[in-house]
Amino acid sequence: MKNKLISFAIAGLLTASLAGSAFAADNDDHKPTIQERKHMQQARIRQGEKSGQLTRGETRHIEKQEHALNKEERQMRKEDGGKLTAQDRAKLNRQQNHLTKEIYNDKHNDRKRG
Fold it and tell me: Which of 2, 48, 52, 62 could form a Cys-Cys staple with 113, CB 3.0–4.6 A?
């Protein structure tokens, strides 16, 4: 529970700072980093919980997938001396794209938190 509260606080702070940096980045072709995408996705999940767009089950399922993705990233970094290869980044990007679509679909289905 304490870890979730800390991650909520961090996600909130980073979302605010990322919103500012995203606004500044409109003029160039800034692609969000893996970390930035994680924080943006976490903010979307929290917003979906708060608004009732995500059920508890949907949230739990997305969080499990996100945890597995984070674990895989840590393993990739461990194998390559703390760095991600271009191939690792591409794989993580594809997985984040999938997770983003899943968050969107879950938020826009007919199920609501009761």
Answer: 52
C-alpha distances (whole Å) from 84 to each of 41, 81, 87 are 20, 8, 8
pLDDT in tens, 46-93: 999 999 999 999 999 999 999 999 999 999 999 999 999 999 999 999
**Residue 28 DSSP one-character state:** T
Would you state the pLDDT for residue 36?
94
Q: What is the pLDDT of residue 111?
A: 83
- Yes or no: say if 61 and 26 are a contact pair by the CB < 8 Å rule: no
Answer positive or negative: Cα dihedral of 86, 28, 104, 10.
positive
Quote the CA–CA distance of 57 and 97 in Å, as a whole number: 21
The alpha carbon of 100 is separated from its chain's Cα centroid by a whole number of angstroms, namely 8
What are the residue boundaries of the structural domains of the chain, listed by start?
A: 2-107
